[in-house]
Specification:
five-stranded antiparallel beta sheet, about 725 residues, about 15% strand
């Protein structure tokens, strides 16, 4: 990592002035840069940073940290001396705060215009409306925490329709209902029933999120209801066993009847943990509000919270909870349910299936399909679907286990082997874990966008066609492969073609990336038949980039930046979750979003219907098991490619792999003791590299070889210990 002096030298190439301690506002930072004619890339290069980071500093999303903060302040002070703000832009003296009066007259009367609220910039934003009160006057002492530790966008970039943010946490104290919004805003809610709450949200709350793609749609506002809010609105604080199994309140519940009498509609999901209430649209404007009912476990603690603190989300102050969920909405999208559901919705939000297109003959706008999106349901392929799919009814005997020749089995690694005598001489087992491995595998991957075409009669393999290929790869021998002029010991490596690492025994179905890897290794392939997609594209690229940026920015907020390497990186990772609970939760949620969305592309029946009967997930255009298989295949062969290069570079072989956690025997307890480096101290080309970016690795944990032998003895044989070795118990979660 560059020192402060080195950063100062780089800045001096742009400016020779004296440094200052304080930073101007984000808007002023941007003005100064533009006045000097400098680009964000130039400043990023001087500060050894990323262009996106400079953009975040200028929008107020993040703040620079030492030593870059001092260097950045040095630059801005010099620019301010050369390009002073125009007189009209000079800030006026800040008078004492003027708090608007709250109108308490009858609802039919018009409230008097409130006095303008002038509040210092360092204090929370307060709505200057008849239903607002200052955040500093909250009845809870902890409410001041809502004062925007981190903002999500500059004021100029806020959509006026959604100026209060994407969501609010609804809480009640002493009979007063409050809506905690992002940025420290607290609104008084006059509603006394759920229908009134929905109508208030649609008419006054100014909640929601602008579309992520011009052909997409704006996100509906979300209200997160706490336990006290449920009691205030007549809802149970916990669902009964029967209600939990049904996933909703019964039709006869008084609140459900209130909703129906008010003319509100509900989706088929009913009034459950994620209830969606709506009125008919007004023109093109949707009128829909989604309720996230916290005490009904709408936010799974394994995804959104901490497994060892299941009550954390329920006990968080509403101001802290909205800060967390608001940041997630800004960096990923407004939550839509589980992290998996949200990740899947993110794909659609970034690649909408349709657009409005003007018909030149009629002049009317009509719906047209986007070529880079998943647009409709297509016939499925028997080898790609799970066992309970209706298309398999009558094809196999009851309880038949499909073979690789009957089913596409592209899954992550679950592999292990005994340690050799030489490896047992090492005192430690070190586990490295790949960051965001499934998201990284989706980057740049061409996937099918249309329906399958069946190729028969020994078709020629074409790596440009995504799909499934029936081919015999049992002739591939890793010991015959040369990597950088060296061969490897194939007996100590898993096969790249099976999740268990076993050598394939005959024809089997494989996704295109797996077959392509066999060709890359130098072996001939002769497919027997195939199901391919002739229309394809990099559908997941924008999805990957948004999740990558969300993850990298979140890690940077915890002090783990992309420029950290080696021991500095390891130390920053070790202390990251001690700095900010919100960011620690956000890291887990972002990773779970990436992992869960890929799995949901082939969502299985959860017992809703009998075997071989259609289930709801099959009605989604993005129920695409072939895309899931392609991502998982790409993740597994990409990992194997690095295993091969690591073995060739350092004669280093893994002893266990669990999904994306790799166990190596090591002479020392640190990844730096085992991962190969060049004589210049850089990671060996093509091998695992420590770093925060997706696809790079971090330290998951270390144990002794003696500990492993004891585990094997207790279990009665060798088993996969990769996910038992965790120095950081959260490592590998949601990858």
């Amino acid at each position: 990592m560059p020192t402060e002096n080195e950063l100062f030298s780089a800045v001096d190439a742009l400016l020779e002035e004296v440094a200052q301690d304080d930073l101007p506002t984000p808007e002023e930072r941007k003005r100064l840069r533009e006045a000097a004619g400098l680009s964000q890339e130039q400043i990023a290069k001087a500060l050894k940073s990323r262009r996106e980071t400079i953009g975040n500093w200028e929008s107020g999303e993040t703040e620079p940290r030492p030593p870059k903060r001092a260097a950045y302040a040095r630059l801005l002070e010099g620019l301010a001396a050369r390009f002073p703000a125009p007189a009209a832009d000079a800030p006026a003296a800040t008078p004492a705060s003027v708090i608007p009066e709250v109108f308490t007259g009858p609802a039919s009367e018009t409230p008097p215009a409130p006095a303008p609220a002038v509040i210092p910039p360092s204090r929370p934003k307060v709505a200057a409306t008849s239903t607002a009160r200052p955040a500093t006057s909250s009845r809870r002492p902890g409410a001041k925490k809502a004062a925007a530790k981190k903002t999500t966008a500059s004021a100029a970039a806020v959509d006026p329709r959604f100026e209060n943010g994407p969501l609010a946490v609804i809480d009640c104290e002493d009979g007063q209902v409050s809506a905690y919004c992002v940025g420290g805003l607290v609104l008084d809610v006059p509603a006394k029933t759920v229908p009134a709450l929905v109508d208030w949200t649609l008419a006054e709350a100014k909640l929601g999120q602008a579309r992520l793609h011009r052909n997409g749609r704006d996100a509906d506002p979300i209200l997160v209801l706490t336990t006290s809010a449920l009691e205030r609105f007549g809802l149970p604080t916990a669902l009964s066993e029967e209600e939990r199994h049904a996933g909703r309140l019964p039709a006869g519940h008084k609140v459900v009847k209130q909703v129906e009498r008010a003319g509100l509609q509900m989706t088929q999901r009913g009034f459950g943990p994620w209830a969606r209430l709506y009125r008919d649209p007004e023109g093109s404007r949707r009128r829909c509000v989604q309720l996230c009912i916290l005490p009904w476990h709408a936010l799974d603690t394994r995804e959104w919270g901490k497994k060892d603190q299941p009550e954390l989300l329920l006990t968080m102050h509403p101001a802290d909870l909205v800060q967390y969920l608001g940041l997630y909405a800004a960096r990923v999208m407004t939550p839509r349910g589980s992290t998996a559901t949200t990740g899947l919705e993110l794909m659609t939000a970034l690649r909408p299936p349709t657009r409005a297109e003007k018909n030149p003959a009629t002049g009317e706008f009509e719906r047209a399909y986007n070529e880079d999106a998943l647009t409709q349901l297509y016939p499925v392929v028997p080898c790609e679907v799970p066992d309970e799919h209706p298309i398999l009814k009558g094809q196999f005997a009851r309880h038949h286990l499909r073979t690789p020749a009957e089913m596409l089995m592209e899954e992550p690694y679950d592999w292990c082997r005994p340690l050799t005598d030489e490896e047992c001489a090492n005192p430690y087992l070190v586990v490295v874990d790949i960051n965001m491995s499934f998201a990284a595998a989706a980057n740049g991957l061409a996937v099918g966008l249309n329906g399958p075409t069946h190729l028969t009669g020994n078709p020629q393999f074409d790596p440009a066609l995504p799909g499934s290929w029936l081919v015999d790869l049992s002739h591939v021998d890793l010991s015959r492969v040369r990597v950088n002029g060296r061969t490897v010991d194939g007996s100590r490596l898993p096969s790249p073609f099976t999740p268990k690492g076993d050598h394939p025994e005959g024809p089997a179905w494989y996704a295109t990336p797996t077959v392509q890897y066999a060709v890359e290794l130098g072996f001939d392939v002769a497919p027997i038949e195939a199901y391919v997609r002739t229309q394809n594209g990099r559908y997941l690229d924008s999805w990957y980039k948004r999740l990558r940026d969300a993850y990298v920015d979140t890690m940077a907020d915890m002090g783990v930046t992309t420029d950290l390497q080696g021991q500095e990186f390891l130390e920053a990772m070790a202390r990251r979750k001690q700095t900010d609970l919100t960011m620690a939760l956000l890291e887990t949620a972002v990773k779970a979003t990436a992992k869960g969305a890929i799995g949901k592309l082939r969502q299985r029946s959860r017992g809703q219907v009998p075997y071989y009967e259609p289930y709801p997930a099959l009605e989604r255009v993005n129920w695409r098991p072939d895309i899931r298989a392609a991502v998982l295949a790409n993740q597994r062969v990409g990992l194997h490619r690095k295993l091969m290069k690591t073995a060739a570079a350092a004669d280093l072989y893994p002893v266990a792999i669990g999904t994306d956690a790799i166990v190596y025997p090591s002479p020392g307890p640190s990844p730096l003791d085992v991962l190969p480096h060049t004589p210049e101290g850089k990671p060996a080309p093509g091998t695992f590299r420590l770093g925060v970016s997706p696809g790079m690795v971090k330290h998951q944990g270390t144990q002794t070889v003696l500990w492993a032998e004891q585990q094997f003895e207790e279990r009665g044989g060798v088993f996969n210990i990769s996910n038992l070795i965790k120095t950081d118990q959260s490592a590998g979660e949601g990858e």
